[in-house]
TrEMBL record:
Protein name (database record): Uncharacterized protein
Region (Disordered): 1-42
UniProt biased composition (Basic and acidic residues): 33-42
Residue ranges, compositional bias (Polar residues): 1-12, 19-32
Top-level lineage group: Eukaryota
The organism of origin for this protein: Macrolepiota fuliginosa MF-IS2
Length: 188
């Protein structure tokens, strides 16, 4: 799916796979900032007006579900290094803080109101290149960039189709519904 010119102008930085076959992505600057990037009227494009309406194909009985993209650790570090100009070797920042700052950056670039990092269950649709983590209990999971939870009270904060497409341009892959690794009561 090719993005419209107004959509492409919202993407300030882009990370794309390298041609060398390595797993670490390379930085592409084919979408440099323009005057329009500072202009809030870019959101007037109709694609940024309608919220997404997708729902999970099934509802999990005990765990929250989130709509978002799986991202691997290499992509997060690459984006952070490009944005901040600080390499992974030069920083003493822990990964979770780096991921959180990338989420903050994407929230401000794209205007997605409910952008979060979530830990979700691994299933047969999990991308092969996703970074797998393990809790002390042995539970394995991946992290995603979540755009919205499946909760009726949060539906007003769902992203627009344009915002989803812009995030897809940046992270690659397809967004989908994921299941949280813990039941809802776990966090209380």
């Amino acid at each position: 799916m090719s993005a419209s010119p107004s959509l492409r102008s919202t993407i300030v930085q882009k990370v794309v796979p390298t041609d060398t076959g390595s797993q670490a992505p390379a930085v592409s600057s084919d979408t440099p900032p323009t005057k329009k990037d500072k202009d809030p009227s870019r959101w007037a494009d109709p694609i940024f007006q309608k919220q997404i309406t997708c729902t999970p194909s099934y509802l999990h009985k005990t765990n929250m579900q989130f709509f978002g993209f799986a991202v691997d650790e290499a992509w997060v570090w690459q984006y952070y290094e490009q944005w901040r100009g600080i390499s992974k070797k030069e920083t003493k920042t822990i990964y979770i803080a780096v991921f959180t700052s990338v989420i903050w950056r994407l929230h401000h670039i794209l205007g997605i109101p409910d952008l979060h990092m979530e830990s979700v269950m691994i299933d047969d649709k999990t991308p092969a290149n996703a970074t797998v983590y393990e809790e002390k209990s042995g539970l394995k999971y991946v992290t995603i960039i979540s755009m919205c939870p499946f909760a009726i009270e949060e539906w007003a904060r769902r992203p627009t189709l344009g915002q989803v497409m812009a995030l897809k341009e940046l992270v690659g892959g397809e967004p989908r519904w994921w299941v949280d690794i813990h039941p809802v009561g776990y966090y209380n």
